[in-house]
């Protein structure tokens, strides 16, 4: 594996640096955004693990050298932000990185969305991971899926916590249900894993739910109920699609 430079001192950059060192890679540079422009003449690969808005400015600051691949770790940006470099790549880990240590653990054996120069595949192999290629035209759509899978899921769990708390139930009681549902979706696929009132067409139960929860929670509840209905080729009844359900209650 070639010598690697990691640019970025945030959670992702620190986690990638640690994961690569654990894998025995030659990580010779860990730097912030104010990186020495000439490092492209000393390294075979530079990973830009900086915020999306900083990628293009940092890439432009680096000296061009066809012996060095300049890659970013953005999920949504294409290769054009790495202009003027000729050998470019993308490496986006499909994991959440809450801190350096947990992130490094998760990067070992992870899935990666890659693009560009074939050298980037060697990073995946070094980390014992698996990869799939996403072209520039589909990177934003891919990243949207990743955001739903991670960030939106966390937001949904926040609603579970609020609704449970309002009813006097402990959040701890719901973790086995949450984990079991995720496992079911993985094993059976979302369509066959769906259970509950929407899967049964039990709209009266949904109406009782809406009557019982705070008005501020109704829009999210109904939006997800509508998504659940799509899985079983159903639609919510007209009265549950009315804006009045959200703003004035269902009765």
Distance linking N and C termini:
65 Å
Largest sheet: 7 strands, mixed
The assigned CATH architecture of the largest domain is 3-Layer(aba) Sandwich
**Alpha-beta classification:** alpha/beta
CATH topology of the largest domain: Rossmann fold
How many beta-strand runs?
7
Q: Helical segment tally?
A: 11
Helical percentage: 40-55%
Supply the CATH superfamily name of the largest domain: NAD(P)-binding Rossmann-like Domain
Series of H and E elements: EHEEHEEHEHEHHHHHHH
Describe the structure.
Helix 1 (11-22) crosses helix 3 (100-107). This protein has helices at residues 11-22, 52-61, 100-107, 120-126, 139-167, 175-188, 190-193, 197-200, 203-212, 215-231, 243-247, and strands at 4-7, 27-31, 45-48, 69-72, 88-93, 111-116, 130-133. The longest helix is centred in the middle third of the chain and has 29 residues, at 139-167. It is elongated and about 70 Å long. The chain is α/β, with parallel strands linked by helices. The model has no long low-confidence stretch (mean pLDDT 93). It is built from eleven helices and seven strands. It folds into two domains: 4-134, Rossmann fold (3-Layer(aba) Sandwich); 141-247, N-(1-d-carboxylethyl)-l-norvaline Dehydrogenase, domain 2 (Orthogonal Bundle), CATH 1.10.1040. A seven-stranded mixed β-sheet has the order 2-1-3-4-5-6-7, sandwiched between helices. Helix 2 links the parallel strand 3 (45-48) and strand 4 (69-72). It is 48% helix and 13% strand.
